[in-house]
Amino acid sequence: MSFPGEFLMSSISPVPASETPASPENDPTAALRINHTHAGIRARAAANAARDLDDAGLYFNRELSTLRFHIRVLEQALDETHPLLERLKFLLIFSSNLDEFFEIRVAGLKRRMAYGNEEAGMDGHSTSSVFHEIATSAHEQVERQYHILNTQLIPALAERGIHFLRRNTWSKAQKEWVGAYFDDEIMPVISPIGLDPSHPFPRLVNKSLNFIVELEGRDAFGREGGMAIIPAPRSLPRLIRLPKELEREGHQEYVFLSSMIHAHAEKLFPGMTVRGCYQFRLTRNADLAMDTEDVSDLASALKSELLARRYGDGVRLEVANNCPAHLSDFLLRQFRLEHEDLYLVDGPVNLSRLMAMIGDSERADLRYTPFVPGLPKALRKDESLFDLISRQDILLLHPWESFGVIENWLAEAARDPSVLAIKQTLYRTGVESGVVSALIDAARSGKEVTVVIELRARFDEADNIALASRLQEAGANVIYGVMAYKTHAKMLHIVRREAGRIRHYAHMGTGNYHSKTAKLYTDYSLLTAREMLCEDVHHVFQQLSGMGEPRHTEHLLHAPFTLHRRLMELIDRETAHARKGRKAMLTIKCNALTEPKLIQALYRASQAGVICQLIIRSTCCLRPGVPGVSDNITVRSVVGRFLEHTRVFHFHNAGKAETWCSSADFMERNMFHRVETCFPLLDRKLAQRVRKDLDTYMLDNCQSWTLQSDGHYEKRCPGKDEAAISAQETLLYAYAARP
């Protein structure tokens, strides 16, 4: 399904689809794939196939690849096919992404450098070389981000009646209101800290907004002016909307908290002169370093670590670009950072906090057009979900199809007297989740409820600890999974008594049980009563809650036990088909591809002539387009309105196709250090539907970026005579409810 002009997307370096190199979707017999036969594609000459697949030149660095993804997100802020407030949202998401990138990935690099660990990874880059390359690129992109904000987005918003008012533009009435707001709302909660021998430099919270102030004069105790720090309490909003009576009619006008503090800083230091006031923000190492072997109570240990996270080692310092060098140098010394860690910014240092304004804005015309998630035809009847699922598998594609189906099914199970037990994994979920409410209701009604909660889901640890307490208070059995392995699988198992016998039901998905992200992330959900699949899910839950040898699963692939090995076998099977002259093809769609053995299996498949279509949202360490190694591999990244999150693996298998969905990415951690599941789509029609979805992504020429052999991504754009095709808009049209 195509969408004309309205879905065209601009880019700095667009590449018309008609000008891209030969690829599976536009020429399945391209000369790039040599030695064609009527049956398929033969392997290259043995000399080429023998190239050393351990060669560092065949791999991209993981951290650098991740940073390139964040840059693709920033590119969306320039894309005028997105509504204006959505473009601003992408720019703010870039800030949030970069924060986490520094807190985790850059912090890890700095820690390794501190310990003298310069060991190169599979890509051959030393730790320090990766860090320096990241610093160079990050500085360029941050400068570019603020340039986009100041020269494009803010002026465009002003033209549409949304204004961010600078101090020199405040009217007399606005100045008076700001002054009163400062006195009533800011002064009572703010605590300036003078710096002298009795007031050492304060310990500032990770990513908090602060100001460094230069003072002149004497204070009440006769102390000479010098420097002070003003921490901005997190309870204060970073952007304050003016009262309607002070706004121009039909306009929305906002004032930054930082502007208010700048304008009234002298009120915090009576009798002294403020020579300068400059905002800054410190990003700290936020990775949890917990020795699981020495932990007897995971929840208690995590609570302690979460407190420490707020005060980890500094990794990045953001300072207003008008701050004098002697002050920024002073801050660098306090945080033990180098000039390479200093980012001078032309605007607020905490852009991601502006996200609240987008949600509060009244301008629906500057947002995406809302839609109502659809339902498969079978679910539109007024019928028990148990009756329906007992007859057929149900597949949902969120967000275009409703996540409410899973919530409603759990609520029905909680009420149903025939339901005996419910087991579920929770990795990330909302605090006020309908899923959690249903589990609590089920436990209170006397059903056997067992919930495997992964407390170590990064940045959701505190919420998950609170969630575990709520469930335990309701009478649910709460398990924290396996100490050395994060439980990342998405599974629900319901046991029901029907006509005197036990019947099993299951849900498996590629995404979390989170109603909010289910509106933003693309994910598949399978609801089934197939006996063997449900039995496999039951065995995985037994493995998590009990002890003993790995439980055998008939259809389900289960990390860390069978998933990696079986994926290698499935890729190798396509390789064997290609070597026998048969048609051979595979499609992998996931969030990241970093695991070396899987990459090498894909290289061998390409060398044999297998057409490898990879749709990798973010990090990809595989280098496509290398002659004799990966010239049968294409890698795409789709970035758009929704965050691509589905993990789907399709194998042609000489005409006997297999399609799998999974909670796991092609990463070392998913394969060897997490509990993951990968499930087959055994219903032929559902499998065909997913394959059509994958084909739609391969046809995308609006939101798709193609990875080049040198590591950069080129934006695909429609050719002169081509229709514009957006995969996400096409799927929205296909699956969402009709108006």
Description:
- With 739 residues, the protein is of the alpha/beta class.
- It is built from 19 helices and 28 strands.
- The strands form four sheets. Strands 1, 15, 19, 20, 21, 22, 24, 25, 26, 27 and 28 form an eleven-stranded mixed beta sheet that branches. Strands 11, 12, 13, 14, 16, 17, 18 and 23 form an eight-stranded mixed beta sheet that branches.
- The N terminus is likely disordered.
- Belongs to the polyphosphate kinase 1 (PPK1) family.
- It catalyses: [phosphate](n) + ATP = [phosphate](n+1) + ADP.
- Its cofactor is Mg(2+).
Tell me the radius of gyration.
Answer: 28 Å
What percent of residues are in strands?
A: 15-25%
- How much is the average pLDDT? 88
Unreliable stretches (pLDDT < 50, length at least 5) are 1-49
SS class:
alpha/beta
Distance, first to last CA? 18 Å
* Count of strand segments: 28
Oligomer: single chain
Approximate shape: globular
In short:
It contains 19 helices and 28 strands. By secondary structure, it is an alpha/beta fold.
Keywords:
739 residues; alpha/beta; 8-stranded mixed beta sheet; 20% strand; disordered N terminus
